[in-house]
Design goal:
This protein has 458 residues and is an alpha+beta fold. The chain has three domains: 3-126, Rossmann fold (3-Layer(aba) Sandwich); 147-216, ATP-grasp fold, A domain (Dna Ligase, domain 1, 2-Layer Sandwich); 222-452, D-amino Acid Aminotransferase, Chain A, domain 1, CATH 3.30.470.20. The chain has helices at 26-39, 55-59, 78-88, 104-112, 122-129, 131-140, 156-166, 189-207, 264-278, 312-319, 323-331, 401-414, 424-432, 434-438, 445-452; strands at residues 19-22, 42-48, 62-67, 92-94, 116-117, 170-174, 184-186, 212-216, 222-230, 236-248, 251-257, 285-293, 299-305, 346-353, 358-359, 362-364, 371-375, 382-383, 390-398, 416-418. The strands form five sheets. It has an eight-stranded antiparallel beta sheet with strand order 13-12-9-10-11-14-19-17, sandwiched between helices. A five-stranded parallel beta sheet has the order 3-2-1-4-5, with helices on both faces. The two termini are 40 Å apart.
Length: 458
């Protein structure tokens, strides 16, 4: 890792917490456990009955079952996770992404019980989780914002009223989280009546919250996000940006860093304004500011994710950092230096998704120079159908975008996952599409491509 990021080094024996409970599952739980091992920090895995044989359970120093397969009774069960931390003597909790990672109630429970949450305070999470307050806060901090609803919405009648004020089309979102869960594009009152209860139910299942939010819909933007880290002393560092435009039904599929569509001037402005805005939040930890970007160079704040992102590996590769280590060191009280981060090269990530549950009967994951695969898969593992379907991330790093694209095409073609259906065929198609290679896509491009069917040419 780039040692210039902090003002001082930290020895293995001087961590204020010597055991971290990982309040998550799958590849992100494995990812966190591996960095903790390198730092000499003991780990506790929590798991549902469906995850008894999961890789994160096998890798952690200790493991505690926290409930049945249902996420609401296990990975979203705040009291069970707090009890697991107490009985194992864990001094800190890393929430990963998804589940409780952006729950102010969970953060408050950690604070009440003397547990260090690896992330911002409950007050900051609550502020940024309230989409309207987040917009007002960021607008006051100098970021351009997209128009949105003026209050949290729990009833379809209120959604209809707010949408009529904003003007259709609008984006319906879950207020408590991201990742495409509870998100719909709504073009008319009739669509609102049909989509609102479905999106709200999805939000409840994913985040234990029925609160929704509306946002003005921009038809053909790209999705650009800035990765930041901030310490308790007010220092904020932007670790470059990522282009997350390739999305299926608002769920990211392929990400790249840096964003090749940005000019140097726009990139510099976006990073500087992001650092300035976050410095006003009393923010601590890793976070991501998400923007909608138009080809004329304009960009608009959408939301801030107060956690580590799925796509964090591509930022790690172009900056030479370990974001999980950064999170842990910031939580331990280390102070960031004023060191300016320089990015090098280009990185691409493809998310491999299970389309069906089942047992892995054959597995070959790619390797080679500049190749990284983050996964919790192993031969014989049974992929449960209870959770998000992402099962692996194939990441490639190289000098130039075209070189990396060519290598990724070969790697996706080499990957073998038998026993379940996956999206590998779709990934292979995207990588060879001229629009993707020429950077002429937008956030709706993949949905339209899927409607045209396999092997459609742009």
């Amino acid at each position: 890792m780039d040692n210039h990021l902090f003002k001082s080094s930290r020895s293995v024996s001087k961590w204020p917490f010597h055991k971290v409970l990982v309040a998550n599952r799958g590849e992100i739980a494995v990812r966190i456990i591996r960095t903790c091992r390198l730092l000499g920090i003991k780990t506790v895995a929590v798991y549902s009955a469906a995850d008894k044989t999961a890789l994160h359970v096998k890798l952690a120093d200790e493991a505690v079952c926290i409930g049945p397969a249902s996420a609401s009774k296990s990975y979203l069960n705040i009291s069970a996770i707090i009890v697991a931390a107490k009985i194992t003597g864990a001094g800190a909790i890393h929430p990963g992404y998804g589940f409780l990672s952006e729950s102010p109630e969970f953060a408050a429970a950690c604070e009440k019980n003397g547990l260090k949450l690896i992330g911002p305070s409950s007050q900051v999470i609550a502020l940024l989780g309230d989409k309207e307050q987040a917009r007002l806060t960021m607008a006051a901090a100098g970021l351009p914002v997209v128009k949105g609803s003026t209050q949290v919405i729990t009833k379809v009648a209120d959604a209809l009223d707010q949408a009529s004020q904003l003007g259709y089309p609008v984006m319906l979102k879950a207020s408590a989280g991201g990742g495409g869960k509870g998100m719909r594009i709504v073009h008319s009152p009739a669509e609102m009546k049909a989509n609102f209860p479905v999106a709200q139910e999805e939000a409840m299942a994913s985040f234990s919250s029925k609160e929704m939010y509306l946002e003005q819909y921009l038809p053909n933007p790209r999705h650009i996000e800035v990765q930041i880290v901030a310490d308790r002393y007010g220092n904020v560092t932007a670790l470059g940006e990522r282009d997350c435009t390739i999305q299926a039904r608002h769920q990211k599929v392929i990400e790249e860093a840096p964003a090749a569509v940005l000019s140097d001037d726009v990139r510099a402005e976006m990073l500087k304004r992001t650092e300035t805005a976050v410095s006003r939040l009393h923010y601590e930890g890793a976070g991501t500011i998400e923007f909608l970007y138009n080809r004329d160079g304009s960009f608009y704040f959408m939301e801030m994710n107060t956690r580590i992102q799925v796509e964090h590996p591509i930022t790690e590769l172009i900056t030479g950092t370990d974001l999980v280590e950064l999170q842990l060191r910031i939580a331990a009280g280390d102070e960031l230096s004023k060191h300016h981060i320089k990015t090098r090269g280009f990185a691409l990530e493809c998310r491999v998704t299970a389309l069906t549950p089942g047992k892995i009967t054959g597995l070959h994951l790619p390797s080679g120079q500049g190749v990284r695969v983050d996964t919790a898969l192993y031969q014989g593992y049974v992929v449960p159908g209870n959770y998000d379907g992402m099962i692996a991330k194939i990441i490639v790093y190289g000098d130039r975008r075209q070189q990396v694209l060519q290598q990724m095409q070969a790697l996706v073609g080499e990957t073998v996952i038998k026993g379940i259906k996956t999206n590998l065929e779709m990934l292979a198609q995207i990588l060879q599409e001229p629009d993707f290679q020429r950077l002429t896509t937008n956030v709706n491009w993949l949905d339209k491509l899927e409607k045209r069917g396999p092997n459609a040419n742009s």
